[in-house]
Structure formats: C-alpha cells, structure tokens
Amino acid sequence: MATPTVPASAPPAAPAPATAAAPASASAPAPASPTAPAPAQTPAQSLPGPALPGPFPGGRVVRLHPVILASIVDSYERRNEGAARVIGTLLGTVDKHSVEVTNCFSVPHNESEDEVAVDMEFAKNMYELHKKVSPNELILGWYATGHDITEHSVLIHEYYSREAPNPIHLTVDTSLQNGRMSIKAYVSTLMGVPGRTMGVMFTPLTVKYAYYDTERIGVDLIMKTCFSPNRVIGLSSDLQQVGGASARIQDALSTVLQYAEDVLSGKVSADNTVGRFLMSLVNQVPKIVPDDFETMLNSNINDLLMVTYLANLTQSQIALNEKLVNL
Amino acid sequence: MDRGIWLAGGRENERRVVLKIIKHYQEEGQGTEVVQGVLLGLVVEDRLEITNCFPFPQHTEDDADFDEVQYQMEMMRSLRHVNIDHLHVGWYQSTYYGSFVTRALLDSQFSYQHAIEESVVLIYDPIKTAQGSLSLKAYRLTPKLMEVCKEKDFSPEALKKGNITFEHMFEEVPIVIKNSHLINVLMWELEKKSAVADKHELLSLASSNHLGKNLQLLMDRVDEMSQDIVKYNTYMRNTSKQQQQKHQYQQRRQQENMQRQSRGEPPLPEEDLSKLFKPPQPPARMDSLLIAGQINTYCQNIKEFTAQNLGKLFMAQALQEYNN
Description:
heterodimer; A: alpha/beta; seven-stranded mixed beta barrel; B: 324 residues; alpha/beta; eight-stranded mixed β-sheet; disordered N terminus
C-alpha cells in the first residue's frame, strides 16, 4: 500500500502532487483502500534496484517464532479502553539473507486523528532489560495489530529507523478481515523522483515460521485446545501420550489407504510420486528373521522389566529407611 | 481463602508462558546450568492463573554488581504500563533429567511461599520435552514442611514430630492450559501456514541413552544416600556407646561412694555427667530427606519411561507379526 508523506506531518494528500511520478500513489489517497496491495506492488518492482537504500534486496525472508504471535495477540487482548490497536518492538537476530524474530514486547502509545505519541523511553528501558537476559538480540523493527498501514505507521516507522537500520514492520490482523488473521511483514522503501521529496512505501516480505524442536512440541500440545469445548486441556501422562501419537499415525495411514483405494477404483488418477512414496513407506518396515526379532524384543523387554523392578525396589528401600530412622 | 479448597483446585497456565519458557531454555541454558525466571499472574477463586513470565539473566563473573531486585522491579513496573498482570505468583526453573530436589530449591520456594501463599515452582524438563511430550510440572511445599522450615529447626526430633516423610515434602499441582478465542484463531492460521512435518519423536524406539543417563544419576544419589545412612548408623552407635559409658561411670561412682561410706569418709561429689560425656552431634536429617525425595523422583521418571517403551515395543512386535 502506498502512503506518500513527507516526514513529520500527518495530513495525507498535500505532498501527493509532488510525487505524481509514482502512478499508483496519486490514485490511492492514504487511508482509503483495504483492497489488495497488488496494484501498488507493480510500481514498486518497476523501480530499479540501485535506487533502494539499504543493503538488503526486497526478497528478504522474515522468520517468526510462534511465541511472538502469541505475545502480540495477548497484548491486543489487554489493550487499554478505546485503543484501536497495539504496537510494540520486535527483537531478534539478523542473518545474511534472513531475519529471525525471537522476542517482542509491547509499548504503550496513544493514537488520535491527527497525532500519535509513542513512549520511546519505555521502549528503551525494556530493551535494556531484555538485553541483560539475551545480549544477542537487537531491535529489528516493530509490530502493530490491525490490517491496515496508516500514516501514523509511517511516523512510527521513522522512530524505529532511528533505532535500527532498515526496520521491519509486522502487521497482525486481529480484526479478522476476510475471516482470517493475516500476518504480514513489510520493509519501507523510498520511492519517487530522485532529487525531489521522496515518499515512503511499504514493500511486503516473505514470512516463514521457524520453530525450535521443543517449541514444535509445545505448539502441538496447545493446538489441541482448539478442539476441546471450553478451550481447556490438561497435560496427559506417559502411556496416554504414546496412545495419542499412535492414534495420529493411524489417522494418517487411513487417509493414505483411502487414497490408494480411490486410485484402484479409478476415482482419482494415479500419481507417480505419491506411488513412490508409498513404496518407500511399505519398504521401511524392516524385514527381520522372526527368531532374531524375538530375541531382540525379549532382551529389550527384559531390560525394561529389570529396570522397573529395580526402581520399585529402591523406592521401597527408602521408605523402609524412613521408617527405621523415625523409630 | 480456605486452604482445603485451594489445594484441591488446579492451576491454569496460558500458552504464552509455555512458549516463553521453552524459548528461554533453548537460547540460554544449553549446558547443565539451570535457567530461571519469574511467573506473573492472578489468583482467582480456587485457581492460580499464570499469564506471563519473564526470565532472569544468568549470573556471570563480570556482572558482580548486578542488582537482581532492581531488575525485577523495573520489569514489573514496565509490564504494568501495558496492562499485564504484574503480581508475582511464583517462579520457574529448568532441570537436568529431573534432578531438582535440592536445598536451594527448597529455600527459594520456602521464601516465595512464605511471602505469597499460593506460589508454585514450575519445573520444565527440556530433555523430556524434546523426546515428544511437554514436561511441565508444578510443585508447592506441603504445610507440614512449611512449618518446619519456619522454625528453621532441622534436627531429627523436630522432623519426627512433624512426621514428615520424603513423600510429603512436595505436592504436585495439576496444570491446565487455557487459550482465548483469538489465540485459537491464531493456531488455525499457523496450522495452515507452517508446513513443518510432524515430528514423531515420541514413537522412536532408540531411547536407551536417556534411560542410561537416568540410571546413572539414580546410582549417584543412592551412593550419597548410603553414605548418609552409614553416618547415621555411626551416630547411633556412638550414642549408645556413650550411654553405656555413662551408665558404667555412674555405677562405679555409686560403688565408690558406698565403699567410702563404709569407711566413714565423705562421699565424692556428684559430677556433672554431661560435661564429662559430650553427646555426639546428630547428623542433619534434612539432606537425607532431600536425597530420598530426589531418588523418589528419579524412580518415578524411570517407571514412566519404561511404561512408554514397553508399549512401543509391543506395537513394534505387532507390526512384525503382521508382516510375517
């Protein structure tokens, strides 16, 4: 989306004629269209590369951790009365081709029709505190809830460009436009006729999700609350978990079986790649001589039983010790 | 608040906290050090709701003048600005293979619980979680143990009076995870977008390494325990020997006195027996209680683990039989 402004003043339309060279901007007055950024995108790509400031090409990838999104949604739910949206700082690390966002915190701000005030002192303090715990994290940019980029965003973006080179702007659509919560990331690029006053435009970036292994498991567990009636789940115990995991595999297998049957009965056309995957799947069950397998299985089971016995023995020993000591 | 009702209730724990703890561990404590942080939330009727947390920085050599209290105050003040619950309700810690029953933990939890009655300590086991299932447990000290700690009297008599066994030191509080609707929407989004393959770590059969480590730790603890028992036995023996000696001394005294009386001489003064025979120091019972508690935890972990593995082995057997 194109928001042409000269820095510092909020009133939208005034500088538009000056940047009439960028065709889409003149036709789209600032607060108006929630419609696709597609028409605004084409002029962005027509701009030659060297005119863009900053060392990064437009195809940079942003890798998000789920903890960020959860924090953003949480701060949105706790916003002050009357605030339409929430903003905050993004922290993380920068790589050669990608940016990894690993942490965030929300920053109080006030927004009204003509002005916006962000508590930068607070932001600085919080950043200092966070740095004490993880000194590798840098300020990467900022986030905002809501599905639009307004002129205020440009101002805030400028505040942040003082803190970090080429900051990233992340939007999380909590108002659920189009029935989905869309998550988008942007970086700002200058546009306009070189030599005259430059406008600012937000170019979208690719967003990917990165997980640590343990995070993946945590997220899986939490996803289960989607299915329970009052959004509540408990942590299950050992054998139940094995049961749950095998149930999942069973589901996957039944889908595959269904597909195979459909192909056989001619409902669905056969696909060679899928067929190859199925072959490798079936062949993965190792073919072991039954006797060897029996011995292996038995020895493993014996080991486990012995360990269980020893554990029980130890527990009874210490219980006995307690009784003796307290005599 | 009536204590009985509260202890029966559960604890809620929003997903944000879970993810934050996991992330903190992953980034910081790759070694065997322990990672700690503070839990924030509210107390609602008979439940403790935990809604946020923040991590504590590690203690490093060059941070000698780092003020923990100040860090905490700053954080809480800042969080209040953004309407996050800033009430302290507990703390969390990561653990290595389940070895968390230490004196340090006991002391910290006691000071927390003394200040805030409902506080808990959340123990997060990253290694078990990496194996496929989130391992997060919440513990409090039992009221009996609280009283003993208050007295600061860890002698055997006090413990016997309190009738504390290692099973009654910590009590586990059930955890429940609750999400808001908006977060549910977020989860659906993530599920659609992130095409990361499902990890079936939980069903992997190759987990003997984990079992071996657990057993190693258990053996170490049992060694410590046996040393402790030897010490206790020596103490008992010493006390009984001393009793005997006292007895003998008294008898000799009486005999001598009788002899003197028969000879008409004044009896010898009664000497203070306690000065002559100093009673040996009873060994501290608290440590052995802690060790017993730790052994108990290890044994339970091992049993859970073997139960899971047996299940997996039987499934593998069924698969093989079908094949043949």
